[in-house]
Amino acid sequence: MLPRLVELAEQIALRTGPERALGLLRHIPDPAFEAVRRARFRRTLRLAAERSPFYREQFRRRGLDARRITHPSQLGDFYTTGEDLRAHGADAFLTGRADTAFETTGTTSPVPKRVFFSLREVADMGRLTALWLHILGLRREDRIVSAFDCSFWVSPWVLRAGVEQIGCFHVEAGKIDPLEFYARAKAYAPTVIFGEPSWIVRLSEIAKTRGPWPLKFLFAGGENIAEVARRLVEDVWGAPLYLNYGQTESFGALGAECRMKNGYHRNDLYFFFELANPDPDGFGEIVYTTLSRDVMPLIRYRSTDVARLVDDPCACGVDMGRIGKIRGRCDEMVVCGMGNVGPWVFDEILRGIEDIGDDWQAVVRHDGPRDVVELRVELDDPSRRAAAEDAVHRHMRERSPDFWKNREMQLYDLRVTAHKVGTLRGGGRKLRRVIDERQMLGGAQPRAARENTGS
Ligand SMILES: [Zn+2]
After folding, report:
1. Cα of 142 from ligand 1 centre, angstroms
2. Measured in angstroms, how far is the CA atom of residue 260 from the centroid of ligand 1?
3. What distance in angstroms lies between residue 42's CA and the mean position of ligand 1's atoms?
4. Order of all β-strands in the sheet with 252-257
5. In a 3-state reduction of DSSP, which class is residue 336?
6. Do residues 349 and 396 touch, judged by C-beta distance below 8 A?
7. Which residues make beta-bridge pairs with 114?
8. Neighbouring C-alpha atoms within 13 Å toward the C-beta of 426
9. If you measure from the C-alpha of residue 167 to the centroid of ligand 1, how many angstroms do you get, rounded to a whole number?
10. Bridge partners for 360 per DSSP
């Protein structure tokens, strides 16, 4: 009974608008919130067990009785993976009628994951987004121009749902060339800009030479950013750049940065977070269970992102715990200025190029604020390097137009380097295909950036 009452209070609070909602939510004591989360977890689990063919079958096979489980940890070694979504298809996860769907290429395979939602879920996420943007200082008089990619991507929808609550002016530019954005967006006098980090870095380079305009803040989602790149953006605009952490599967924010920019405050109202296989330092894979979804709930979904869960108080004064900075990914996929790249991306680009051996390796690093993808290939004749690079560019243009487009927008550099046959493997049995050498933690300047200072 108590959880139901608290839940009602929470829902009423969230419908009052960001400012009043914050005031009302503060009055709900922690134990009451925890009771709501537990009640939502039990409800989500029962729904999944009854209506989703995937979960029904998995629980049956493992002898798990959803009615007896009250905490995610009681599910033992059961998890849901991105591979499950791809292999079984979204239909196997559906528990209700969907109004819309989004896709994510955030995978190590070319097959997208499809995730379905109702408009009620969109509106709920919009209310929380509005709450957070209000905390960051967004007000009705602000003017937003967003450059989120609108193609099958969830972020523009979540943003719009949030902005509707605040009621400020909002133009959706789509992910166009930052040069064009700079020329066209200025006319709307935006005070807040939304986009992907690598795109915002490129826009800031342009603004540095052509002149910035006054901004309240910038907000980036979709990939990580190095602190050296964040500093460049903030120096150019004289305004903070905040990051969001989310996935299409989570429908928007799992967490978002506050003004301290020291980890992402967790959305504990709508998700139950756990860590899988934590190491002695407390880093593990972020795993989440959705608590408010009834179209396509996900139970113990493996994010493949490695981070810590931090419950120490934050200097910003917000009570919610945090997800620490993302340290890396468990799979071989790397999110960078090129896009979401895994081994299959380079297999496709290199397919059919003569002289190149089967062993290759892609290394992502920083050169100043920009990502550089170094594609290492093995060649019998090193003088063929330029020809191989030409072929790589041609194949990208023809076969991977999205990656090519990001290169034309100068969101990253692609360099092909030649290596002697048999050297990339270096005697190892397994060749790591895609390596992320960027340092995301702390304020340390990446080595690549240091070496290039002053050049
Ligand atoms: Zn904080």
Report:
1. 22
2. 6
3. 29
4. 169-172, 143-146, 192-195, 217-220, 241-247, 252-257, 264-266, 322-323, 309-310
5. strand
6. yes
7. 103
8. 4
9. 25
10. 377
For residue 374, give the H/E element and its range.
Answer: strand 370-379
Q: Which residue has the tokens 């071989």?
A: 332
> 413, 273, 229, 160: which is closest to 243 by C-alpha?
229
Q: Residue 419 is inside which H or E element, if any?
A: strand 412-419
- For ligand 1, the distance from its centroid to the CA atom of residue 155, given in whole angstroms, is 22
Question: Tens digit of pLDDT for each residue in 263-319?
Answer: 999 999 899 999 998 888 888 999 999 999 999 999 999 998 989 999 999 999 888
Question: How deeply is 262 buried, as exposed, middle or buried, from its count of CB atoms within 10 A (0-12, 13-18, 19+)?
Answer: middle
What is the per-residue pLDDT for 108? Answer: 55
What is the Cα–Cα distance from 357 to 367, expressed in whole angstroms? Answer: 27
Among the listed residues 227, 68, 219, 46, the one whose alpha carbon sits nearest the alpha carbon of residue 148: 219
Location of structure tokens 């989570």: 250
- Helix H, strand E, coil C: the string for 210-274 is HCCCCCCEEEECCCCCCHHHHHHHHHHHCCCEEEEEEEHHHCEEEEEECCCCCCEEECCCCEEEE
pTM of the model: 0.82
- The CA 255 to ligand 1 mean position distance, Å, reads 11
